[in-house]
Amino acid sequence: MNIPVARGLRGLIYVLWDLSQVDPSDLSILFAGTGRLRIGFAEIDPPQGCDPSDELVEDAARRCCDNPYYAFHKPAGTSLICIEGDWSNLVDAQIKGRVAVAMAADARSPYSPLYARAVGMPRPWGVTALFAEHTGAQQPLEIDWSLEGGVRTTAAVLEPIAVDDGSPAAAKSPAPVMQRRDSTDQKVIDPPRARAFATFREFAVALNRADPGALALAGNGATSDIPVDSAELRRLLGMMWFGTAFDRLPRDWRERLLHVLIEGATVPDHAIKRGRQTIHLRELSYEELEEIGSQTSVPDVIRPDLDLLIAVGRFWGAEAVKRFRFVETPGRHEPSMMNSLLHKLRD
User: Which residues does residue 38 pair with via DSSP β-bridges, in sequence order?
Assistant: First the structure.
């Protein structure tokens, strides 16, 4: 397989596997018409710890749109832009804007990109674009995203159902009333009811997809028997799509999750060098944690615990960070003079 195509598929699969923030119903518009798709990839390789320059972004956008691996010549319609890289949101906006310019998009253009970001993507970084040929206004595919029985497409059928209101006219000629039915089983769709989930991750994924059963459980299931594992919850906090699921949880659910995190994990009280000072995690405010987290020179041994505290502050507020139990790190020692000098050179 050609390297540009392989890397493009790699970025696309990584984003879709992580679910990102693209809603499945929006994503289905890509495949709702009868047109063709084309994929493009362009690598962006900025210096370590730096944002890519305007020239790198411009070149990547042009190469992503002008690659020879395309399957149509008509204007692009609904498309998916997947960005992979450890840089600021300003660069993301530049990339999207430059790709739109390269696609000759204007106020009359049908080009309508969906945006997704791959978090923690290994190098090579870049931008992957899945362009769909414009085939007119299309309705999203109706897809059953529930986890029971796999994913399947459904067609909503409106069938006339006679309703007798007791009037003489109705007795002679019942008025047809359109009622929604599901063509997979031809049964009237019942109101959403809470259903069982084997794991909290399964529940969170369904909640992110606005599954009616998950939404019903979110409203009254804080005391449900869904097991919530602290390690699994910690992994979910690092996934971008989890924010959508979290926003759909009421306060009692959120308190339960925070309690699981606090009871299930202790945080090593790492020592971090800031200038000439050595400060520990327990002494840092949420704003200071965010500032340190934005730096690329944080040691790998500290990064997971730092990311946990930042995620907790983002979801539950700055005060929640102080509720964790900080324990002394084994073998903790002050950095040597040589390490301090090297740290200053890296900064």
Answer: 131
